[in-house]
UniProtKB/TrEMBL annotation:
It comes from Adineta steineri. It comes from the Eukaryota. GO terms for molecular function: G protein-coupled receptor activity. This is G-protein coupled receptors family 1 profile domain-containing protein. It is found in: Membrane.
C-alpha cells in the first residue's frame, strides 16, 4: 500500500503533530523543572548530606540529559523528519548516551525508594544503611554498569530504517537483547517492581510511625520521604502504560502485519514514547506539590539568587553575611572577621584569636553541625552555624537562635576567653553551646521548657 494513501498520510501527519505539540511542552517544562531541582538541592546545605535528596539531585541531572539528548532528538526526527539525526555516526552517539542516562535515572529512582524505606524503618540497624557515602558509591557503580551495558552498541553496525527514521542495529541477537532485556526488563519491569514494593513498605512504615509514635523522624527525612512517595505514584502513572505498550510490541514483533497495522502501531508507539518522557519531566512538580518546605525553598531561591561578579558564583541573598560582623549584644562590641565559610559553618574571630586554629576548629564544628542537622532536623531558613571565638575576653559562652533578633536571626555560638587548642578539652564550651541550640531550635521548634 502506497504511503500516498489518504488514511496512512493522515496518521503520519498525526505522528508529526504529536511530536511537535506534545513533545515541546514536556521538553520545556522538564528542562525548567530539573534545573530548578538542581539549583535548590545544591544551594540547600542540608540536602547535600541526606541520601534520599542526593539521589533526587543526581536523578535530576540524568533526567535533564534524557530530555536534551533523547526527547529533543525525537522531536527533531519525528516532528521535522530530519534524516541527518539518524545517520550511523549520530545513532552511535545518541542512542547509547540516551539509554545510559535513562538507566541511571531509573537506578536513582529505585535507590531513592529503597532509601526511603530504610529511613522510615523502626529498626536502627536498617536506618544505618542510609548514608551519603554509600549513596555516592552506588551511583558511581551503577553508572559504570550501564556504560558497560551500552558499549557494544558502538561496535555494532547501525541500520537506518526509512521512513520510520529510527536508529537500529543490524545485529539481530543484540537487537533482541536490547528490546527484551535493556528496554523492557531494566528500564521498565525492574523499576516498576522496586518502586512499587518499597513505596508500599515505606507507606506502611510511615503509617506505623504515625500510629505508635515511638520513633520520630527528622523534618528533612519526612520531607524527602513524602517527596519520594509522590514521585513514585506519578512515575508509575507514566511508566505502566508504556510498559504495557512495549510488551505488546515485543510479543507481536514476529507477526506479519499489513501496512495499515504497521502505521497504526507506529502512531501508538510514538505516543507512548513521548508519554513516558513525562516521568523525566515531572519530578520537580511532584516535589513542589508534596512539600511545603520545598515550595518555600524554590520560591526563595527564585527571588533571592543573584550573580556575584567578583567570584562568578551564584549565591542566595541573605545567607552570606559580610566579611566582618560588628557585635551588638550584651557587653560584646568587637568587630569580628570571617575566617572560614562553608555550607555548614561561618566562622568569625576577633583580632586576638590565632589564625592557625582555623583548620581544626572549622572541621570540628562543621562535622558537629552536620551531625546535628542529620539527627535533629532543620534549624530555621539558614542551615549554617555561626561560630564566634574570642581570646582574652568574654569568659564562657552563650548561644543564640534563628528566631532571635539579638544576633541577627542566626544560629550562633559565641565563646571566649581562650586560648584555643592550647589545653585539653578546649572544644567543650562550643560543643556545650551547640547542645543549647539543639534544645531550643531543633525541628524548627522555638524554645524549650527545660532550658536553664
Amino acid at each position: 500500500m502506497s504511503s500516498n494513501d489518504p488514511y496512512i498520510r493522515q496518521i503520519q501527519l498525526s505522528i508529526q503533530y504529536i511530536a511537535l505539540t506534545f513533545g515541546f511542552p514536556i521538553l520545556i517544562l522538564g528542562i525548567i523543572g530539573n534545573i530548578l531541582n538542581i539549583i535548590v538541592f545544591l544551594h540547600k546545605a542540608s540536602y547535600k548530606h541526606n541520601a534520599s535528596s542526593f539521589y533526587m539531585l543526581v536523578k535530576s541531572f540524568f533526567d535533564l540529559n534524557v530530555l536534551v539528548i533523547s526527547l529533543a532528538g525525537d522531536i527533531i526526527i519525528d516532528g521535522f523528519h530530519a534524516n541527518a539525526l539518524t545517520s550511523e555516526n549520530w545513532c552511535k552517539f545518541r542512542v547509547p548516551l540516551a539509554y545510559i542516562n535513562s538507566l541511571c535515572s531509573s537506578s536513582c529512582l529505585c535507590l531513592q525508594a529503597i532509601d526511603s524505606y530504610m529511613c522510615s524503618s523502626r529498626n536502627a540497624t536498617i536506618r544505618q544503611y542510609s548514608t551519603i557515602k554509600k549513596a555516592r558509591y552506588l551511583i558511581v557503580g551503577f553508572l559504570f554498569v550501564w556504560i558497560c551495558n551500552e558499549c557494544p552498541y558502538y561496535f555494532m553496525k547501525s541500520a537506518n530504517i526509512i521512513p520510520n527514521l529510527t536508529c537500529q542495529t543490524s545485529n539481530t541477537i543484540y537487537r533482541t537483547y536490547r528490546s527484551y532485556f535493556t528496554i523492557l526488563v531494566l528500564n521498565i519491569i525492574v523499576p516498576i517492581t522496586i518502586i512499587s514494593l518499597f513505596g508500599y513498605l515505606t507507606y506502611k512504615n510511615m503509617h506505623t510511625l504515625n500510629t505508635d509514635g515511638q520513633y520520630r523522624l527528622s523534618t528533612l527525612t519526612k520531607q524527602t520521604i513524602r517527596m519520594a512517595l509522590y514521585e513514585t505514584i506519578i512515575v508509575l502513572l507514566f511508566k505502566c502504560p508504556f510498559g504495557i505498550a512495549q510488551i505488546y510490541l515485543v510479543s507481536t514483533a514476529n507477526i506479519v502485519k499489513d501496512v495499515y497495522r504497521q502505521t497504526k502501531e507506529q502512531f501508538i508507539t510514538l505516543f507512548f514514547y513521548f508519554y513516558v518522557y513525562n516521568a523525566n519531566a515531572v519530578p520537580f512538580f511532584c516535589y513542589f506539590a508534596a512539600s511545603k518546605s520545598f515550595r518555600k525553598q524554590v520560591i526563595d531561591t527564585i527571588k533571592r539568587i543573584r550573580f556575584n561578579q567578583r567570584t562568578n558564583l551564584i549565591f542566595p541573598l541573605g545567607e552570606i553575611v559580610g566579611a566582618t560582623w560588628q557585635e551588638h549584644w550584651f557587653e560584646h562590641n568587637q568587630l569580628l572577621t570571617r575566617v572560614y565559610y562553608g555550607d555548614d559553618l561561618a566562622l568569625y574571630y576577633d583580632d586576638d584569636v590565632a589564625r592557625s586554629t582555623v583548620p581544626y576548629i572549622s572541621k570540628y564544628l562543621s562535622d558537629a553541625w552536620r551531625y546535628v542537622k542529620r539527627n535533629y532536623g532543620s534549624f530555621g531558613p539558614d542551615e549554617r552555624l555561626y561560630a564566634i571565638f574570642h581570646t582574652g575576653r568574654y569568659s564562657g559562652g552563650h548561644p543564640s537562635y534563628y528566631y532571635s533578633a539579638s544576633h541577627d536571626f542566626k544560629n550562633v555560638i559565641d565563646q571566649g576567653a581562650g586560648p584555643w587548642f592550647e589545653q585539653l578539652g578546649s572544644m567543650d564550651i562550643p560543643t556545650h553551646e551547640i547542645f543549647h541550640i539543639v534544645e531550643m531550635a531543633s525541628f524548627n521548634t522555638q524554645g524549650s521548657p527545660g532550658f536553664w
